Amino acid sequence: MKKIALSALLVVAAVSTSACSTLRGAAIGGAGGAGVAAATGGNVEKGAAVGGVGGAVVGTVVD
């Protein structure tokens, strides 16, 4: 699970330099969702998917 969370954090770091708020929000949300799921013993894949969708929506609305 730590490898998945680390991978998600690397994606966030790579995408954070991008100018696209939707992708950046999705990446941050996905990493956050994966991290929370890993910390609470939940399904990391589902946490990343839900977080990614939520982050994309927030990134689009904020932009």
How would you portray this structure in words?
The protein has 63 residues and is an all-alpha fold. Helix content is 84%, strand content 0%. The chain is globular and about 30 Å long. The protein has three helices and no strands.
Shape: globular
Poorly predicted runs: none
Strand content: under 5%
Helix amount: over 70%
**Discrete helix count:** 3
Counting helices, strands and paired strands, the structural category is mainly alpha
Number-wise, the strands total: 0
Give the helix/strand layout.
Blueprint: H1 2-15, H2 21-40, H3 44-62
Quick description:
The protein is mostly helical.
Keywords:
3 helices; 63 residues; single chain
